[in-house]
Specification:
With 739 residues, this protein is an alpha/beta fold. It is built from 25 helices and 21 strands. The relative contact order is 0.09. Bound molecules: adenosine-5'-diphosphate and magnesium ion.
């Protein structure tokens, strides 16, 4: 059978033996085209390599045997009307009965003389021909002439994600048949030189091994998805995205003119004179990196990563002041009102001292106030605007926008970044800041079009925060410690989770807790902060906490980002098991920002949690269910008890945000770390960002090399690569046409 259209555009429905009904089921697994079927690699492999002689079997053993069907019979039991198919299987050493219930079609499958591989648990056979019995074993028919199923001995059996109505075994058969009909149409897109360099097989060599491994393969490596064959597929995926990103970056930098900010150092000097501290060397370094970019005539696209409290705001300030000195406006966008207000309040005095006009723009402002702000921006009377998403609205216009800074970037999508940028006729420079450390691999993919600066140093005097886990029954011990800190004049946060499905209950818990603290901790002043408060009330409470008119702040997760109160030393987190690692880390970052030792107490209901050690394996924690991830609902890994235990154990042990982020990636997978929606834009079929770190670096390097030599990808050996690249990423990344 010859297919004229390429595999990626041939619907699976037209493959032999599939049809519309199965095609619908396959679509649930993400298999829409014939190409998808080839790339649907097994999630697991069963080792059925060791074949035992039938005479050695004993009841209770889990075994694989291989033999020829001697006879096959079907009957219906008189009492329960079960259909029973019985076969007798013989090898050189003996014979064994096997029975299968309610699968009448098996009578056709198990013809006499057919060779089968059976896997199951041996039981005693009271009245059969043989002493032993296999009840409902897994079976494979072995002797289709010439098929890869043929050959001596046992097998490694591919196990696929299933969906209701489509078993792994059926999938095996469908995919096998697709191999028979379409394998010759597989297209190789990796140039030979590239494959040789990394020792990768061709696609046509790799796929058969992944779908029906031969017995010489290592089951262990297969199951870890790290065979050269797996790597071949993963590399292709990673390379394509890295090339697309490199291309996009190249476009952005060259497409529209950027601004070369001139760098008179008077402003910077004045700024330095105002700041009450000197910069850390990490801050100095990243400011130089940013200034370098800003001085170029092409536009800046830089990611600034740095743990909570490392001092990113000051760095942003330097960039804004530079833009201002060159006569351009800056916009600083933060994801929440709390955070944007905080930025505004902390920056405003500095701008005032520098004679730079700075305004705040957020939702819910009075119409008059908002209109005045908009006019000031459009006329150029104001040089800096700090705000939320409100900045993205169409009626916000700038006189001369030169610099866009986006804080907590991962909360915004790539598109939002683009909207702000489009508010200028030229390409403003863009600086993206994130306090949520992102694992290197994720940063290289999600932010692949950005250059990265890292602040890896804290302002002097910052002591690591002490983190302790407590079971709920020991709450009174925690309260004692809390009281001690309050008595010493410090302030504290008590944070309750607030998760949508149980929002009401959660809110109630926080409100009641605030009441209890008021009673038990009198005369300390207790405040309550949650999302249902009006933004005025929120502001009031936060201002009171900031000014030490509140000692203990009970809050739902609104304090997650932003609040900067140096006198706060305790972060007490209730129901800690319900928080993710990134969130916990953010919360912990709220304390220990001043001179005093910070404490983070986590109260949980998980029972005893062992001390974390590096040997605790990670991947076993990933959800093991056999269903395809497409079908999985809520983040099951988050709710599993053992995962939660591990998460807290790790959190208590590690202070470094980047290490935690790596851990988070291993536990939850990229989809949850990045946000399922965002991940959906770049999800891979084989590559795994938690595992394929080295492969990703290689792909990134190769992508840049290839584009350097052949920017339009018009060398003959790059044509297939270019086709696939444009097909997969052209539209998503708005690459237009090349070459
Ligand atoms: P981030 O946004 O990275 O979490 P911030 O910019 O809010 O951190 O800085 C945290 C705190 O550290 C702020 O109170 C800030 O004033 C202070 N800070 C920043 N840089 C320094 C420095 N070089 N020396 C002393 N304190 C600093
Ligand atoms: Mg910050």
């Amino acid at each position: 059978m010859v297919s004229l259209s390429p595999l990626w555009s041939t619907p699976i429905q037209y493959a032999k033996g599939v049809g519309p009904r199965r095609a619908r089921l396959l679509a649930k697994l993400g298999i829409v085209t014939i190409e998808d079927a080839f790339w649907f690699v097994p999630w697991r492999y069963d080792d059925r390599l060791e074949v035992l002689p039938i005479q050695n079997l004993l009841p209770g053993m889990k075994v694989t045997i291989r033999g020829t069907i001697e006879y096959c019979r079907m009957r219906t039991t008189s009492r329960r009307r079960l259909v029973v198919v019985t076969i007798a299987v013989r090898d050189e050493t003996g014979v064994i009965d096997c029975i299968f219930f309610n699968q009448p079609y098996l009578e056709q499958t198990f013809a006499e003389g057919v060779t089968v591989l059976l896997t199951g648990t041996v039981s005693h056979n009271p009245k059969g021909l043989s002493q032993n019995l296999l009840k409902g074993p897994e079976y494979e028919i072995l002797d289709k002439a010439g098929s890869p199923l043929d050959g001596p001995g046992g097998r490694i059996v591919a196990v696929y994600h299933e969906t209701h109505g489509l078993s792994s075994k059926q999938l095996r058969r469908i995919i096998q048949s697709i191999f028979e009909h379409y394998a010759q149409h597989l297209q190789e897109i990796l140039p030979g030189r590239m494959r040789e360099r990394f020792g990768l097989p061709t696609l046509s060599e790799a796929l058969p091994i992944l779908h029906s491994p031969n017995p010489s393969q290592s089951v262990v490596l297969l199951n870890q998805h790290v065979t050269p064959e797996h790597q071949r597929l993963a590399f292709e995926e990673l390379l394509l995205l890295q090339m697309a990103l490199a291309m996009k970056r190249h476009r952005q930098v060259t497409a529209a003119p950027g601004i070369a900010f001139s760098q008179p150092d008077t402003m910077e000097k004045r700024l330095k004179a105002i700041l009450p501290f000197s910069l850390t060397s990490a801050q100095e370094r990243v400011i130089r990196e940013i200034f370098h970019d800003m001085g170029q005539p092409t536009c800046m696209n830089r990611l600034l990563q740095g743990d909570v409290g490392c001092g990113k705001t000051i760095v942003a300030l330097h960039a804004m002041v530079l833009a201002c000195g060159a006569g351009y406006q800056s916009a600083l966008m933060a994801p929440t009102e709390v955070l944007s207000e905080q930025h505004y309040l902390s920056l405003k005095p500095i701008y005032d001292a520098l004679n730079i006009s700075c305004v705040l723009l957020k939702g819910g402002q009075a119409a008059g106030e908002r209109a005045a702000t908009l006019v000031a921006l459009q006329s150029g009377d104001t040089q800096v605007v700090v705000g939320t998403h409100a900045l993205l609205q169409p009626d916000v216009h700038f006189a001369k926008l030169g610099l866009v800074i986006v804080d907590e970037q991962h909360k915004f999508g790539v598109l939002q970044r683009a909207i702000l940028r489009d508010k200028a006729p030229w390409q403003p420079d863009v600086l993206v800041m994130t306090a949520t450390p992102i694992p290197r691999t994720l940063a290289m993919t999600w932010y692949g079009d950005l250059d990265v600066s890292v602040i890896d140093e804290f302002p002097p005097g910052k002591k690591p925060i002490q983190t302790k886990l407590y079971e709920e029954k020991n709450r009174s011990r925690v309260h004692q410690l809390l009281r001690k800190e309050l008595e010493a004049g410090r302030q504290a946060y008590v944070v309750y989770p607030l998760v949508e499905p149980s929002e009401k209950v959660d809110l109630q818990a926080a409100i009641e807790a605030a009441e209890q603290f008021r009673e038990q901790f009198a005369p300390f002043r207790v405040g309550l902060l949650h999302g249902r408060l009006s933004s005025r009330d929120k502001q009031l409470v936060m201002a009171q906490f900031q000014q030490q008119q509140i000692d203990l702040l009970v809050a739902t997760t609104v304090v997650e980002v932003g609040l900067d109160v140096h006198n706060a030393t305790v972060m007490l987190i209730e129901h800690a098991e319900r928080f993710g690692l990134a969130q916990l880390h953010q919360l912990r970052g709220r304390v220990g920002r001043g001179l005093h030792q910070g404490h983070c107490f986590l109260i949980h209901s998980l029972g005893r949690i062992p001390v974390f050690n590096e040997q605790m394996t990670l991947r076993v924690e990933r959800p093991k269910d056999a269903r395809h991830p497409n079908e999985r609902g809520a983040p099951s890994a988050m709710t599993s008890r053992s995962t939660a235990k591990r998460r807290l154990a790790v959190f208590a042990q590690l202070n470094d945000g980047f290490a935690l982020a790596e851990e988070d990636l291993h536990i939850r997978g990229p989809g949850q770390v990045l946000g399922v929606q965002q991940w959906g834009e770049i999800a891979f079929r084989v590559a795994d960002l938690a595992r394929d770190v080295d492969l990703l670096s290689k792909a990134r390097q190769v992508a840049r090399e290839v584009l350097q030599d052949d920017p339009t990808l018009s060398f003959p050996e790059h044509l297939a690569l270019k086709d696939t690249l444009m097909r997969k990423w052209g539209e998503k990344l708005n690459l237009g046409s090349i070459g």
